[in-house]
Amino acid sequence: MEAEKLQALFDFCKILLDEERLRVIGLLALKPGGVKEIAAALEIKEPLVARHLARLVEAELARQDEPGLYRLDLGRLLALKKELFSLPQPAGGPQSEDEKILRRFVKEERLVQIPVDRSKLVLVLEWLVAKFEPGVRYPERAVNELIGHHHSDFATLRRLLIDYGYMEREQGVYWRVEGKSNNEL
Prior knowledge:
7 strands; rod-shaped
């Protein structure tokens, strides 16, 4: 089923990649028209307009309500739009704003800079605390090593994790606060 949807969307895109056909679609979006009317408006030869219209009708993007009068099939366009947005996003596709921000600060699992902006810092701290297992108690040395793997200033980051409530500490032992964050990248 997914393959059929993808093929239909691929065929739709191929149709749209013709500049003259796009111009025909643009005119049909404004009002129904015939071959002569469209050819005159776009200054294209009638046989070429007829071929474009035939292609659009074949793809069910246009229809002929009356002989010689074509109109854009908005219902079909809306159905294609719905199919497109129902497909799973490919890997590497559009990202949320939080993901984009995090990717600016984290490169190959290394924090390149500690953000100054509070909202960006929170994103980074949530990413970092996700490296700690819930329910596990870590001695300070293990915390330093784990954070140090991601950034050289482990002391500042360790302090920020505690100050922002992502971790707690008692007698040199640290643990992740349950339920505070489960965001992993």
